[in-house]
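Weekly puzzle thread! Below is a chain. First person to post its structure in token form gets bragging rights.
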Amino acid sequence: MTAEIENAFAEIRRRSGPASIARVERMMETGNQPRHPLQRGAKWIMPGLSQRPWHDPYEYAELAPVVETLESSHPSIKDELSEAWATRQGAFSDYEHYLTRQKDWQALYLFRRGRLVDESASLAPTAFRVIEEMAVEPEKICPLLECHFSTLLPGAAIDPHCDLWNFSINLHLAVDIPDGCGITVAGEHRSWQEGKCLLFDYSFEHEAYNSGTRPRTCLLVDLWHPDTTLPEREALVVLFTEIRRLMGDD
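Winning reply:
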């Protein structure tokens, strides 16, 4: 642990109590933390968080307002996304997952590298406003990650994989869903229902595909896992910001 991390952690413990970030510190200990077999590909497993692949989007009071507002705003979000795809497709880019980069997986970012992507406000104003007001300002979004429109082109498939950690959770608003699309998390297959949200823990192995004849688009939002506390979130941001800096990825 670097001096920057040690000093920041000490300050968090001083303000919030000696045990306030104990789970984060246990996560950092040498050796693998207990995990589900289908989380074996995840690098960081923070102990004490619910180990469920799928979550009810409405079960958490913290997240329900985000879900409700996105779903009620779906008609406008879909119209604006369709216009952007038809007229400004150059604003989309190959999605850069930490494991791969795919030309048949396109992204339009609304939030990235800890900030809103202002250039996208004119392309997707409704989604941009909802994410800003409901996720960014109340600090429900995980600033270590992102929010983007995820567009799988016809025939595209995302191979089975685990994401890096379990302390954030992935919300999907189904924006434009053709027939022949689906997602599997920890062996359980589901389909998106247009205008509705899915919520899952992407530290579990998951995959997705579009076997349809037109693009499939969801709005993806990386939110803090509701089981994490505010001191833990502060410590996690410090920790992974420093790790990325040391890796030259800041």
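Puzzle host: Confirmed. Bonus trivia for everyone else. Residues 1-20+229-250 form one domain.
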